[in-house]
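ugh ok fine here u go
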Amino acid sequence: MCGRYLRRSDKQRLAEVFRVAKDLREMVLPSGVAPPDAPPSRLRALAFAAGALGLTAVVAFIYRDAARSYFFNDDFQWLQGARAFTLANVLHIERYNHFYRPVIEIYFHLGRRLFGCDAFPFHLASIGIHLINTLLLYLFAHALTRSRAFASLAAIFFAVQPGHAQAVAWVGAITDLLPALWYLFAMWTHLLFLQRRHARFYVISLAAFVTCLLTHESSATLLAVMIALEATVAWERVERVSFTSLAGRAMRYAPFALLLAGYLVIEYVVNSRSYLVREEHYRIGWHAVPHAIHYLITLWVGTRDVISQVLMLAVIAALLVRGTPRVRFFVLWMLVTIAPAAFFTWGNVSRYLYLPAVGFAMLTAEMILAIQRVAARQVSTRAARIAAMTLAVLLATRFAIFATKVSAGFREGTRAYERYVAAVRKANPPPAAGPLVYIDRADAEGIPVLYQDPAAEVASCGPDVHVVVR
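structure:
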């Protein structure tokens, strides 16, 4: 009776609240039947909590060694710069000669104020952001397919992916984790806007887009992936396309395009001063093709021999030509987000795979469910489900084992800095800390000269320090 007195708009808002609440609780849900004494919604909430806690425990286990690691390389420069950072700095473009990443600067500034120079909470923050990104991927995947199984598999494969493990283990690689957070948030809210046409989703997506631009250069690919997403949604709905509808959709992206153009101008000015461009460590060329292929192989944790490269090219081509619209979207996500990093002239860097791993995780989940559908034609539905689940567990376990090795390897890589910092603190204890520190050459072994002074400054978490190696 009460529903009779509610306005239609109120009913729509109430339905929207229930839909969003359902999105947030439907993670890693079993495909069983609710017992008579347990309401389905309560069972789903419990399953969501159990799945989220289970996946959190797995991620915590994988990165347990990374959490105990010290800072490494670029971390010291970020922390050193954070001491003198002021918000007004971001308005002075002339002071930048490498990258323009104000959100990253703010992150380290706040981190230093909250955590000082203690590495442990910074590592916990990175792992926490990785878990948030995993949740955002789940929400996006579920909204795209309305399949809890697909969304759960995508989230699991992304959470344990070894290709991007360095991004989670290394504090300085927050430059890959944070932009991915805004990237995924923008994509999810953009998808909700395409599905529900509510203006608030458009505004939230635009805000996330701007924040992503101010975080990292990888955000330059976001607009292209958003457009690809709309094309995929329209294709799956079999929507009729006319000149009027295309013009309307183009106008929808005009604010995003204008913001992106302004950002690219800033990046051009800043990066033209960077040693990466001046010394041709980053340039347009055909070297990007083998780099991109190697990145794709790394996602699969395969070998980089000729056979693997040819096979990878054949698979990608087949998926683009013969795949469903959704499969093509996943492949395009990988290729588009890999492209910026592929133009470096040095070797591939695994942390740049954090965003491409999102597309790979969804593609892998789609593959598992496709295998289940094919198997169901030959055997019982139950047997097909068990076979698909077994394959998913084997793949996830394989990925988790490799990711754990990356985490442990990173821990070992920071030990030289732990030895170095201990020597600096011993030679320059806090009560008598001075601007000049003398340490033995053996204690500085393995520490690049570029990072010696910043690491010494972080060791005391005070003013600048100059190290003299004897």
